[in-house]
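Let's practice the habit of predicting before peeking. Look at the sequence and jot down your guess about where helices and strands might fall. Then scroll down.
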Amino acid sequence: MPKPKYIETPEKLWELFEQYVKHEADNPMKKTEFVGKEARKEIVHLETPITFDGFECYLADKGIIQDLGDYSKNDDGRYTDYAPIIARIRLNCYVHNFKGAAVGLFNANLIARKLGLTDKQDIKVDQPNEINVNIIKKKNK
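Done guessing? Here is the structure:
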């Protein structure tokens, strides 16, 4: 007999995600800044990026489930109905972070790494030249 599902329906999973998004909006991170010549202390509220990992932590903190691994993998076919909702949640997280980074709300470098959007350049040196030889010699000293 299979174990019961902690989240009974895909609709309930989406409802929990919406609650997570609202929770993050209602509980922004806070940053202390000192403003002006007199260094007046101000608390600035910062929007928190919405992430799948954060959603899993939210569910664990609420005592609902520790992780959504079974729902995401669907190894035994019991969670097929959840696949579109899991995909939608992941896409919502991606879009939220991408848009936030694009407008400067979130650190673009951190978000790009999290989303796998890093710029890569492959530089290949086929033959050693004078500069490469000098660099190698300095490293070996």
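How did you do? Helices lie at 10-26, 52-61, 69-73, 83-102, 108-115, 130-140.
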